[in-house]
Structures are given as C-alpha cells and as structure tokens.
Amino acid sequence: MKQEINAIVTDIEGTTSALSFVKEELFPYAYKNLPDYVWDNQDELADLLDDVRKQEKNVDLSLEEVIEVLLRYIDEDQKITPLKTLQGMIWEEGYKAGELKGHIYDDAIAGLKRWKDQGVALYIYSSGSIPAQKLLFGNTKHGDLNPLFSGYFDTTTGGKKDSTSYEKIASEIGLPVEEILFLSDSMDEINAASAAGMNVIALNREGELNDILGYTVVSNFDDILSESVAA
Prior knowledge:
Blueprint: E1 7-10, H1 19-40, H2 46-55, H3 63-75, H4 81-96, H5 106-117, E2 121-125, H6 130-138, E3 151-153, H7 163-173, E4 180-184, H8 187-195, E5 199-203, E6 217-218
Parallel strand pairs: 1-2, 1-4, 2-3, 4-5, 5-6
C-alpha cells in the first residue's frame, strides 16, 4: 500500500459475491419475470422504456419490441443503466417474496466487518443499480449488511473501465485517491482504478486470472485483512 487506507471500495460479482449467484440466479430470475413486470408496470416505467428507445435510436419501438431489446441486453450482459434499474426493481419483488436471498462470501463478511471495526469507510461500486446493491446486501442469510457501508456507486457515476469514474468516486468520498483501496475480480477495472491513483487488489476466487500485470492478487478477503489497512 502507498499509505494508510481510509476507505475501501469493492466490486460485487466475483469479489464479495459468487459470480454463479449473479449469473445463475439473479439474471435468470430477471429474464423470466421481465416481460410480465414490464407489461404490468408500463405506465410507471414510461421514462425507463423511453431511455431504451433512445439507446436503440428508435423512438417508435413498440412495448413488445422494447421488451425484446431488454431481454437481448440480458443475454449480452450489457451494462446499460435502464436495464440495471429494471433488474433491480424485479429483484426487489423476488427478495420481498422470499424467492431470492443475497449471496455474500463468509470471508467477505468477516473482512468487511473487520475493516468497519478498524474505522475504514466501506463503499460498493457495481454495474448493478444502487437499489439492487442494497437489496442484495440487505437480504442475506446473515441478515441486513447495509449498515456496514458508507455509500454506493453504480453506472450513473460512470463506466467501471473508465479511470475518471474512480476519480469521481474519490471526490464524492472526500479522500485522496491514494487513501482508497479498490477490490475487484476484473483486471480492466483494476487497471482503471490504478490509473486513477487508487491502491488495488485483484480477487482471483476461481483461479481463472492469468494476465495480472504485476498487481497484488489474492484468493479471498482473509488474505488482505492485515495488508489492506496497514499504514
């Protein structure tokens, strides 16, 4: 670490939570329920649906066509704000119905609680919408974990592969970038955060990272508990 770490910003997928939970539970749940949800709530979703039409540069898309576009976005794992917002709404219904339960690694919970107790401010930065982030951490087998966090960031701040996004996050947190540690399983995101001046550690939970470019890489949060908060 370059100096004392006073804030930690962490990704979700593959970092605090299993990629399989997102890919095999959350995404399929949204895909299955999206058509009916949009049809049933089309008036309330009017602005969001118009954002999709703008994204597609076709203001004449019918509701059925917009739904087809949204399903295609899910198939393509697009990080598009209207889709992420809509997914969050659908997941909220699933959490409320008890059909979804947020997955957080045990070592991630232990690490987050340890850092919180040590006075480190904790933040989430994910491509999922902020409401979706709060739902995931608010509905876990360990209860509501949202009190651990001081704030949340999503694609409304900027793309996760854009270094300026991390500069904006540092500005909003109110700390120099050098006092912030970013955790992610994506080397593109690690590169962007490092380019902005943040400390970075890559998570390699599945042992699939190859080109690590000299960055510190760990397999779980236990491996960084002491290092991440050292002066």
